[in-house]
Write a structure and sequence with these properties.
The complex is a heterodimer. Chain A is mostly beta strands. Chain A is built from no helices and 11 strands. Helices cover 0% and strands 56% of the residues of chain A. The chains are: A mainly beta, B mainly beta.
Amino acid sequence: GIQVEQSPPDLILQEGANSTLRCNFSDSVNNLQWFHQNPWGQLINLFYIPSGTKQNGRLSATTVATERYSLLYISSSQTTDSGVYFCAVEGNSGYSTLTFGKGTMLLVSP
Amino acid sequence: ETGVTQSPTHLIKTRGQQVTLRCSSQSGHNTVSWYQQALGQGPQFIFQYYREEENGRGNFPPRFSGLQFPNYSSELNVNALELDDSALYLCASSLVGSGIGSPLHFGNGTRLTVT
């Protein structure tokens, strides 16, 4: 099956700093989503981005499908950004199922 | 727009027992998927239901089974519970067949503890 690798596994930032999270995947994809999981386990959909660039406030994401990677940018980080960020992809299986990476755990300190 | 809702939020069961988890899909969605998330791991795909039939399955044994109802809600049943079944169980819904990509939207999950 499709493989998803995220880096870095852990990241500690001071409030106000910027960061870039990376997701590499092993095959062509129909769908790529970025999620933020808060400490209570809630998985929040940040971006649906199989290709191109999108922005939502302080967050933006870029997927270069031909090179099989996606980047999530967090600018002016806040303590509420803490949590685990997952990249998940849907391969060409014909089902709308997602394969998740292992996540990047982000801690933003005040 | 009603989001994905799951019940119960927490559950404690004993090894060998059976459990049923429930999920109501987001309005307008016709497909439900279930994922298992062990502590410190990413969610793992269990199975997907479309038009009330299983439409794809991950690497989970047959004691994990499910149902989808005409209103697109779904149940996940786990028989003969094992300690390793302790996890957060996430339900996600999406719209399949629209001709365009549809993101998955997740519920808040059911945290199952098996003792």
